[in-house]
């Protein structure tokens, strides 16, 4: 395969670098994997065309389960300064305060998170800024030729190129679109500061399926109050154009119940919009190469499961498979397939894909089954709200006789 000439200085000097593992793609998956493998003393080469990961709207929040995976891999000290913790999330449903979730979540901007992790790479596992011109894989050795002529030889090649197709195609993998333009994510800053917000974080579910909106999540990232909204319009819809032009007006109409907590929805940044398709992969069961993170499957941002998949891949490879694979000679497909057949990986990917599909159907599907499900869920929620109101009323002190 061939790509255009890269202009930046490579960390791998022209010549042949011999490593245990070559990782192509320094997003979250590739960088976390490199850091974790380097901590176990493996020789790793990490290649990406850009020294700095560009600022883009991607994942902006993780929960405690994902933070625990970072910590398990020894990446806690690298990630903690890059995230804003929160513990008290006010959840609104059916136009009312439904519950307070007292759980840990962590807000961040994706570019700075990836760049912060890249900055933590040790000198023995630096980022090589360069483009791959040729890739060849086999049951024993994998070989990358970069456009500056330098060569990386490895026992294992990891493809962590996210949505990038060039390397996957060169190896012979194909992406299957399971649900095209499945969902739309919108990200923007609110003008209100975290100090001015009465609630530390708010999640508000849309009331009307016709809004084609799942929920709005408002949470702090440093000194900003950030908003992520997930739904099922397309980029081309008039709704999306109108929202971009006047988010405040549309949010006031759609979610008036949290306007007061969100500075009346005054918006302080352009609205970033990302459309996401659900995809899987074929042709990945090969000698010498393993594909991880979004390069393997892409799921929907609405249930917030992408980073769990990424970090489960990284954990399973670092904790189990790569040490086992390097222990014995060869890197044939039967070794590699143990990763794709790993019950934890299968369960994590499968649950992420199922929740991506379910989130859309329960929000907007108009068939009788889904209408009945919504009715049942909302009736149960109304009863909970009512029950809480009654128990609060009963708990009030009796009026004094005076
Ligand atoms: C709008 C949006 C919101 C999201 N929100 C959430 C959320 O709230 N919670 C959650 O858990 N997940 C969320 N996700 C999903 C999450 O962001 C992804 O699952 C995760 O970022 C994937 O990481 P990755 O490392 O696999 O891919 P990426 O971060 O895309 O990294 C790919 C890397 O590969 C490099 N690359 C590409 N081609 C080549 C090549 N030919 N050679 C070398 N390098 C190459 C790129 O430069 C990049 O650095 C969201 C996704 C989107 C789009």
UniProtKB/TrEMBL annotation:
User: Pfam families per the record?
Assistant: FAD_binding_3 (PF01494)
Report the SUPFAM superfamilies cross-referenced here.
Answer: FAD/NAD(P)-binding domain (SSF51905)
GO MF entries: FAD binding; monooxygenase activity
Q: Where is the FAD-binding domain?
A: 18-320
Keywords for the protein's UniProt record, in alphabetical order:
Monooxygenase, NAD, Oxidoreductase
> Which domain of life does the UniProt lineage start with?
Bacteria
Protein name, per record: FAD-dependent monooxygenase
What species is given as this protein's source? Mesorhizobium hawassense
């Amino acid at each position: 395969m061939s790509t255009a000439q890269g202009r930046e200085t490579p960390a791998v000097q022209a010549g042949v670098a011999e490593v245990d593992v070559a990782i192509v793609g320094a997003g979250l998956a590739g960088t976390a994997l490199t850091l974790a493998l380097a901590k176990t003393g493996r020789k790793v080469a990490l290649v990406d065309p850009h020294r700095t990961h560009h600022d883009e709207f991607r994942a902006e929040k993780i929960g405690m389960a994902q933070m625990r995976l970072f910590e398990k891999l020894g990446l806690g000290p690298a990630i903690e300064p890059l995230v804003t913790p929160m513990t008290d999330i006010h959840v609104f449903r059916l136009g009312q305060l439904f519950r307070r979730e007292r759980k840990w979540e962590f807000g961040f901007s994706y570019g700075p998170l990836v760049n912060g992790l890249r900055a933590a790479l040790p000198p023995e596992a630096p980022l090589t800024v360069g483009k791959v011109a040729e890739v060849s894989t086999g049951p024993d050795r994998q070989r990358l030729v970069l456009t500056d002529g330098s060569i990386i030889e490895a026992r294992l090649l990891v493809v962590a190129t996210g949505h990038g197709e060039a390397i996957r195609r060169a190896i012979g993998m194909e992406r299957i679109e399971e649900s095209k333009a499945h969902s739309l994510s919108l990200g923007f800053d609110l003008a209100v500061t975290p100090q001015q917000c009465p609630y530390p974080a708010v999640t508000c579910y849309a009331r009307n399926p016709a809004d084609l909106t799942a929920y709005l999540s408002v949470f702090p990232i440093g000194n900003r109050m950030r908003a992520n909204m997930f739904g099922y319009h397309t980029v081309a819809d008039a709704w999306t154009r109108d929202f971009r032009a006047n988010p405040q007006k549309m949010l006031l109409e759609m979610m008036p119940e949290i306007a007061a907590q969100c500075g009346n929805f005054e918006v302080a940044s352009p609205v970033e919009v990302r459309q996401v398709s659900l995809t899987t992969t074929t042709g990945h069961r090969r000698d010498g190469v393993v594909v991880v993170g979004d390069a393997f499957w892409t799921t929907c941002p609405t249930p917030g499961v992408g980073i769990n998949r990424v970090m489960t891949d990284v954990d399973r490879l670092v904790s189990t498979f790569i040490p086992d694979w390097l222990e014995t000679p060869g890197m044939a497909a039967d070794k590699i397939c143990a990763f794709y057949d790993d019950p934890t990986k299968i369960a994590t990917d499968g649950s992420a894909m199922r929740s991506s599909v379910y989130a859309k159907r329960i929000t907007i599907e108009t068939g009788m089954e889904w209408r009945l499900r919504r009715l049942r869920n909302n009736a149960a929620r109304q009863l909970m709200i009512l029950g809480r109101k009654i128990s609060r009323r009963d708990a009030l002190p009796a009026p004094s006789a005076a």
